[in-house]
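thread: overnight batch results

M.L. [08:02]
morning all. the overnight job finished for the chain we discussed friday. pasting input first so we're all looking at the same thing
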Amino acid sequence: MAVARGDEPADLVLAGGHVLSVFTKEWLDLDVAIKDGHVVGLGKYEGRERIDVKGAYLVPGFIDAHMHIESSKLMVDEFARAVMAHGTTAVVADPHEIANVLGTDGIHWLLDCCSDLPLDVFVMASSCVPASRFESPRRPFTPGDIESLLRRHRTIGVAEMMNFPGVIAGQESELAKLNTHLTDHVDGHAPGVRGPALNAYLAAGIRSDHESTTFEEALEKRRLGMWVMLREASAARNLRDLLPLVKQHGTDRCMFCTDDREPDFIVEEGHINQMVRVAVEQGIKPEDAIVMATINPAEYHRLWHLGAVAPGYQADILVLNDLKTFKPRQVLKRGAPPRHVKLEVPDWVRQTVSLAPVDASSFRIPAGPKRIRAIRLIAAQLLTNVDVIEPKTVDGCLVADPARDLVKIAVVERHHATGRIGLGFATNAGLKRGAVGSTVAHDAHNVVVLGVDDRDMAACTMRMAQIGGGIVIAEGGRVVEELPLPIAGLMSDRPLAEVHDRLRSMERRLNEMGVTIAAPFITFSFLALSVIPELKITDRGLVDVQRFELVSLAVE
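M.L. [08:03]
and the structure it wrote out:
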């Protein structure tokens, strides 16, 4: 307060810049005084250190309203280094990926790691482990598990309630997760939920959603009071389709999130700053775009000390040269350049793949049905459709038919070596030969493998067990490329540039094998998620998400 009054010098003064007031959307030509990591005043100030930022634009650090660190395939320290360079200074993470693999121990470990990072990582307690009764995690979470996480520092609410059919139906088991009496802050997950069902979902106390794919869907949710998270993920690029919501109705209750963004997206396009840049390119005012990246997520998540360059707020400040590229010239975290750390990973976090032995015969599907269901991939979306087709039969077995873009898909249980395998087919994947598999298989993160050849599918699967998890491509009965992800079978212990280069090489390999869809690895990983319509597959079989039940491969 003495510094704010001008009685004592500030630790640091940023002088000569244009400062955005996120409250009025005005640019103020004032000095910014910083003391003990917080902004204490805007005006004319003296400081022990003075940085001339004449002509630059000073805005709050960007906040990701909903994301999963594990989807970056980077250890949390490397993730922090990657996104802070793009101006993201805080994220609200749902760690349900590592929760499915390592239980509450995994989340507690992650929280402990984040306490040493320059990036502010706030956690929402994972509500759906597993995402549904059709998935097989290491162990299911109970309301007691959620309560234990809510008592941790930096856990600020209950994460996305993905079992929307259960909530809408009033299932006591799901409602109990929302009524812990420890918080009333709950994120939603309601893909395609409209009308009376949406009313019921909201009546349960859920206040946000990041799954809208159309303007009409997002508008209906916002009209009913939901906070709409405009998402731009690797496999779900919804931002451009949703921006009319902002153009027509302003920025209230709108914010940005990346959800699941892979290394190539971060390296080549950025993080939240990419969303701000695209929004401005699409006709959104820079001030409005910045508001959705800063104060709106801060206020929704009740992070009252973040989201503004104003007295009493944490001094997370970006120095921008222009309002077009949004590439920070300088990033200040608590009033200083970020100090990055290198974290060690214990062995128990690495030893997570427990597979029963498999061979080519494990993936055989006996002939019989005249028509079958196949999962039809949709480019740049997590949604799928259903194709009903006549299968190809060879030697008494149903087989892939690359001439019709029909490949086999399997999910192999990998937490308890049960040997359980769900088998099916997929279309529109593009794969003409070989196989590709991954231990990143949302949300239970068993092994998902797509292939034209059963031997290659087996080679992928067993190699993942040998390397502690990862992404593997096989052809001719042998592994031809791989990216080890030894940290819970989800994350690499290597630097961002190395992970990016390896993934790009593997994408080129898949292109040569016929796969042309963007972000193939994350797209394939979501084929196992049983809470996004329409047809998905788990180790227990095919899931009709709209009917919320297991269905047979055969169509009667």
